[in-house]
Specification:
The complex is a heterodimer of chains A (263) and B (404). Chain A has 263 residues and is mostly helical. Chain A is built from twelve helices and one strand; from the N terminus they run H-H-H-H-E-H-H-H-H-H-H-H-H. The mean pLDDT of chain A is 86. Chain B has 404 residues and is mostly helical. Classes of the chains: A mainly alpha (263), B mainly alpha (404). Chains A and B meet through helix 1, helix 4, strand 1, helix 5 and helix 6 of A and strand 1, helix 1, helix 2, helix 9 and helix 10 of B. Chain B: This is ABC transporter permease subunit.
């Protein structure tokens, strides 16, 4: 049963890997289902790297996801700390709004954001990282609030008695203790931003600024899908994700189950 | 818990700004759009205009020429009655000129002024028509066009109130999209729950290689949906796709091409791709819930002589209920909002048979640049999402916010 499950999960990737080395004629030819390519070729990889600029897309994705991760982690850490440690009016309202934002359809923000970006002249730029907050921030805040709640207050109180300010307490005591949670949030935020599609395809329509999901979706035309190139590009763009998953699977699973939020 | 002072308040300023500008403001704005006939490709509708507006500059120029052209023909007009009505048109236009003497550019006008301008236009239109029929006018061709410009100087409000909603509720595209969305959501979430629960139970049994399985399970979750969709569109392809070939070999399909070229086939394909992508995620969420169930409960039940089926229904399911409901809530919302998978895999086709609400609203907004109507569809989605959340939160018993 487990073997069967693993085969189903892994099979598509294996097949894509095989296809990426097949010559175009062989992909469409008489025997498209052979497991071993007759004449293995690296041509598709060369094509997507040289002609289709897949490396630029990966670069764009790294920039966009990296910037999003950095500012979301900072903003969410501050907010989650305040929510976890202080009493203020409208706290439940803030938490409710954060939860609601994680629930509403992304389509609802896209029209106004598009018009705003047109007015500001921000289309086709890296400003797109700002509206990414709408899909990443709620999850980050929820995971971090859970983490902060688990850190005993006594530690902070003694720091405060020793004369530390709120910011110092956060920076010197709480932050190191919450580091695993912050790290988890960073990884999940990065992957969410890496996978984002609607905002990227709408706002950064110029191929100079295409991110990975958008660039890949443009490898097909209406009449013909370049399967060989699609396969090679899929393999290339999956590598960064694979590395992250392999290195940090424990943190990712912790984050997913604690936040319990979103795919 | 301490009271928040001003300095601590600064901690939440950034999140308030970000959520305010990039989440709440757009929602309110979309809500506003939905009451307007707001279309970017139509110059007179490319903004939100609550009032009638009047292009004073255009009107002044127009009235000047109409006045001049009619005056030129005054001698040609022989009948006294016609002369009088021509003079009336000129007077009317001059009156309006005086009224807007101190204005320029585009201004908002009152409904009285609107009626006045409309009356002037209608009178001018009718008179010019009669004159052209009876006499040989010098500007016979240009005059009607100029008169038309009087009307064009007035820009109608594109506020339509609830008209958009009325239209949407009768629009078969919207109703079809809603139906496709519900079918997709129900089928994929149900499959994911059953498969994910089974998977989680197996993984919970302390088998070897658990870490490896967990890692492998994360891969589909971490792959961009658009990439996964394109990958599956290759596997589903009628002539080169291995999955389509397998399906037809085991008798699920008559022809491999049926999968993507029939409505039912494409919907099934989309559902299966979604199940592939998110079942492992569901399994991981449920596994966390399973691990929180104390094993002493199972020991106690085995002493009482319960079998595994009884264990499952009497212990596992009741204790897992909160985890299941949270996982279901988020999976249902995700499936209901589905966009990239379907947009890349089928594009909503064939023949709109896989068009979901997200895909339809996106096409209306960015394909037809009709933001007003697209926002109406989005607001309908919003209401559905609110209903789904309410139902789940009710079932969850406690407030979902307390689960931490």
């Amino acid at each position: 049963m487990l073997i069967f499950y693993l085969v189903i999960i892994v099979f598509p990737f294996i097949w894509i890997l095989i296809t990426s080395f097949k010559q175009t004629g062989e992909i469409y030819g008489n025997n498209p289902f052979s497991i071993i390519p007759d004449n293995p070729t690296m041509q598709h990889y060369a094509d997507v790297i040289m002609e289709k600029g897949i490396m630029r897309a990966i670069g764009n994705s790294l920039i966009v996801s990296g910037v999003t991760t950095i500012y979301i982690v900072i903003v969410a850490t501050f907010a989650a700390y305040a929510i976890s440690r202080f009493d203020f009016r409208g706290k439940n309202l803030l938490l409710g709004i954060v939860l609601a934002v994680s629930m509403f359809p992304q389509m609802i923000v896209i029209g106004p954001i598009y018009n705003l970006f047109i007015d500001l002249g921000w289309t086709n730029s890296y400003w797109i990282t700002l509206p990414y907050s709408s899909i990443t921030l709620p999850m980050a805040v929820w995971i971090l609030v859970t983490h902060f709640n688990q850190i005993p207050l006594a530690l902070e109180e003694s720091a405060r008695i020793d004369g530390a300010s709120a910011f110092q307490t956060l920076y010197k005591i709480v932050f190191p203790l919450a580091a695993p949670g912050v790290f988890t949030v960073a990884i999940i935020t990065f992957i969410t931003a890496w996978n984002e599609f609607v905002l990227a395809i709408t706002i950064n329509s110029n191929s100079e600024y295409h991110t990975v999901p958008v660039a890949i979706s443009f490898l097909r035309t209406q009449f013909e899908i370049l399967w060989g190139q699609v396969a090679a590009a899929t393999i290339l763009v999956t590598i960064p994700t694979l590395v992250i998953v392999l290195l940090f699977q424990r943190q990712i699973v912790n984050g997913l189950t604690q936040g319990g939020v979103k795919e | 818990m301490r009271k928040m002072g001003f300095r601590e308040f600064l901690f939440i300023v950034p999140i308030l700004l970000l959520i305010g500008i990039f989440s709440l403001w757009p929602v309110l704005q979309s809500f506003t759009y939905s009451f307007f006939d707001f279309q970017l490709n139509d110059r007179t509708k490319s903004g939100l205009y609550l009032n009638e507006r009047f292009n004073v500059d255009l009107y002044k120029e127009t009235s000047l020429y109409v006045d001049r052209f009619i005056s030129q023909d005054m001698e040609t007009i022989t009948d006294e009655e016609d002369k009088a009505s021509a003079q009336e048109v000129i007077d009317q236009l001059n009156n309006l000129d005086k009224e807007f003497e101190n204005e320029d550019g585009v201004i908002t006008i009152s409904s009285e002024q609107k009626e006045q301008i409309e009356a002037a236009y209608e009178n001018a239109d009718a008179t010019v028509q009669t004159l052209a029929d009876n006499y040989e006018l010098q500007q016979e061709e240009n005059l009607p066009l100029l008169v038309e410009d009087i009307k064009n100087s007035m820009i109608e409000s594109n506020f339509i109130g609830l008209q958009g909603y009325k239209r949407a509720l009768q629009d078969h595209f919207v109703l079809d999209a809603l139906q496709h969305t519900l079918v997709f959501t129900f089928a994929s979430v149900a499959l994911e729950l059953v498969l994910g629960l089974g998977m989680a139970m197996v993984m919970n049994q302390g088998i070897r290689g658990k870490g490896f399985i967990r890692t492998t399970s994360l891969i589909p979750w971490a792959i961009p949906t658009a990439v996964a969709a394109l990958m599956w569109s290759y596997l589903y392809d009628g002539s080169a796709g291995v999955v389509a070939e397998i399906f037809s070999n085991i008798g699920l399909l008559d022809e491999p091409t049926d999968l993507m070229q029939t409505g039912a086939g494409a919907m099934t394909a989309a559902i299966l791709a979604d199940v592939w992508k998110t079942t492992p995620y569901m399994a991981i969420l449920l596994l966390a819930g399973l691990q929180n169930i104390p094993s002493s409960l199972y020991e106690a039940s085995s002493i009482d002589g319960a079998n595994r089926v009884q264990d499952f229904f009497r212990i596992t399911l009741p204790l897992l209920k909160p985890s299941i409901l949270v996982a279901l809530l988020f999976r249902t919302l995700d499936a209901f909002r589905i966009f990239d998978l379907i947009y890349v895999l089928t594009g909503g086709g064939p023949g709109g048979s896989t068009e979901t609400l997200s895909v339809y609203s996106y096409k209306v907004m960015f394909g037809q640049t009709n933001f007003g109507y697209g926002s109406v569809v989005v607001m309908i989605m919003f209401v559905c999402v609110a209903i789904i959340s309410t139902i789940y939160v009710k079932f969850l018993g406690t407030n979902i916010m307390d689960r931490n």
